[in-house]
């Protein structure tokens, strides 16, 4: 199913490809002793967008002025589809009578939208996955409690509700849509997130694998590889307005997990060229930063950096309001880039990216080397090395093994803080630098975030027993462990990636790292967190009838809030993590499931 979408390479032609690639990569993949310029000069690059997105920016502003802020979601307007040519639609829009503040009458604007647009989400149609069965053979064998098992089957059933395919209309007239014409069926997060998202897909796939839906998992990978082939990297999401940024790079982890379950060597081989291309994206140009340590060794690491300096199209009216007090044009463009770069991180938004935790306009994402991003790229290097090895490409395997060793050393040198027993984000002295940064201990961000523990998810960190012991103790005393899971931070800012919200991906990475360590104490902590997380998901589901995007970890059974949109339900990665936890830890007959 998925294989037909991959670039076709014979084994010999891929070996030729890998030899050519090595000649290109080796000069740029520096391994602690040599490195090139770390940062780029402002203004950074800007990816042009399509005319339809620019028009929707105007429509969004008029809609806000007309309908007001109550229940206003700017994303709705950029997810509409044209019924007619853009020129005709723009002409009709320009002829709408408008007041001095840009508003139209509510009646006129509603009639215009109904006449000229298909509703948001209509370009994605329900599509039942061919590999879905109501109760797969061998499904969650460790779940012995009948109440929990019945609920798990309901969560499994949600894959049918979240499965979509791009409508034929998008393939026929792509210029009428912001939705991108993905070639395969997909799984969406749910609610306002009507399209595929990059890092969400990893935990969706983990759930699909627990549900024995291997073809659906492969199709998701194929769609993401399609984006790499079209754009050179995986987009934040499958919309034209997301082409200016990526998201946490977990495609190699998806390929690895699918390969590990299926043993499909051909799937692994066909995935490799795209994975290598993505690695190059994150390790060159604006994303690449070099830090010189106290021994004068240079370490190459990566940062988030969106290719955009305007309001995010999906949240344009929100971004403009925040920027309204910034009078300088260059400063305003810089702010917009920092906002988009925070969105690239997946943590949109958090005090993690702010110089002043009470001032959103002090976002400085591009001035931070993030712990978790570099852990993800370390995992990518490990994954590529392993996948190359099993497909017989030993040159690529050796190249990426060396790259992983260099990044492992860089993570230890730049991020590790032995006193705290955590890996800390590193503030860059000047994000517009033209040479290597000099490492200084005072530039480590001393604030506690759940991301400080994410490297534990990645080899070789979780296999270092003394390190795991130290990090486990640090996690237990960090203040992040709450009644219903791991909090994202200790700061109650009102942003959604802060206290008291807990997110499924964070729980999963930290729990899986602890569980894989082999240490008895770490495994007990892992299972305790997983039990708390499963329980709060279950109780919230029974109260509300749905799975949620995020949860309030202070209270068992409470869903989360904060941020720039109302709480969302569905929900792809929450479903995936619950199924993955139940597969790993099970649920004994006599363990209670209620709070």
TrEMBL record:
N-terminal signal peptide: 1-30
Name of the protein this chain belongs to: Trehalase
Gene3D superfamilies registered for this protein in UniProt: 1.50.10.10
Catalytic activity: alpha,alpha-trehalose + H2O = alpha-D-glucose + beta-D-glucose
InterPro entries reported for this sequence: 6-hairpin_glycosidase_sf, 6hp_glycosidase-like_sf, Glyco_hydro_37, Glyco_hydro_37_CS
Hydrolase as UniProt keyword: yes
Similarity comment: family membership: Belongs to the glycosyl hydrolase 37 family.
EC number per UniProt: 3.2.1.28
Annotated source species: Prunus mume (Japanese apricot)
PROSITE patterns xrefs: TREHALASE_2
Record carries keyword Transmembrane helix: no
